[in-house]
Amino acid sequence: MGDKFTVGWLYPDLMNIYGDRGNILTLLKRAEWRGFDARLVELGRGATKQMDEVDIFFFGGGQDREQALVYEDLLEFKQPPLEQAVKNGAVILAVCGGYQLLGSYYQTADGERYPGIGMIDVRTEAGKKRFIGDIVVETEIATLEPKTLVGFENHSGRTLLGPKARPLGKTLLGHGNNGADHMEGCLQGAVLGTYMHGSLLPKNPHLADYLIRSALIKRGVDELSPLDDSVELAAHERILQRAQHHLHLQHR
Ligand code: GLN
Q: I want to staple 38 with a disulfide (CB 3.0 to 4.6 A). Which of 30, 31, 110, 235 is the partner?
């Protein structure tokens, strides 16, 4: 068995909706298919060990109720070791509710504010109308081929990016960060935030490999052996075709 490759799952019992678990399976399998000894560490509430062993952290989505149950724990127990792990080269994929709590705050539609850990320069305030449906994004990440990312969104939060954060891409279909500036997600340092559930990575194998490669840079690895992604990319293509249909209907 090859080198260890560790995925850290933040709050698997509370922040895990709309198939987010699929991202964990994808990261573990794609590392395993490259000969790594792929392991999962579940990081629930309370003080947790092993955060310094993690290569990629995954922080999934959750309704306001779940976010209310984790934000204090995130501040008290997770922020320090997470920042240390990122300093040591770990990367973070955060989806929706998780993405929001890595920013400065998430404010519910009733005005309740949950402070975030401020790891990324974004802030989120919920609106009355939920953004629900397929989402297609044209990414800013130069090395990604195809240039599209596909997923599913379901959120009330409207996220605004500050000057230190740049978008993951622009929306070709869907609402993305706030339904106004046609931007989706956030790229800042080792953090990739997005509103795309679905789950995201099974239908975007190129993004999964981008994250794995980013986590392996500290080991001097910058190439991954190619995999047969024909099934994954066929699913990706199917969503693009469906989106075309939507867009066609929208512009009629
Ligand atoms: N509760 C947050 C919102 O509504 C996040 C939802 C989610 O993770 N899907 O925006």
A: 31
pTM, full prediction: 0.96
Catalytic-labelled residue, pool 155, 175, 186, 197 = 197
Atom of ligand 1 nearest to the CA of 124: 10
How much distance in Å is there from the Cα of 228 to the middle of ligand 1? 33
3-state secondary structure of 157: strand
**3-class secondary structure, 196:** coil
The atom number, within ligand 1, closest to the CA of 157 reads 10
Q: List C-alpha distances in Å: 209 to 5, 18, 23, 27, 72.
A: 13, 21, 12, 8, 32
> Closest Cα partner for 176 from 162, 193, 196?
196
The answer to whether residue 186 is catalytic is no
**For position 74, what pLDDT does the model report?**
98
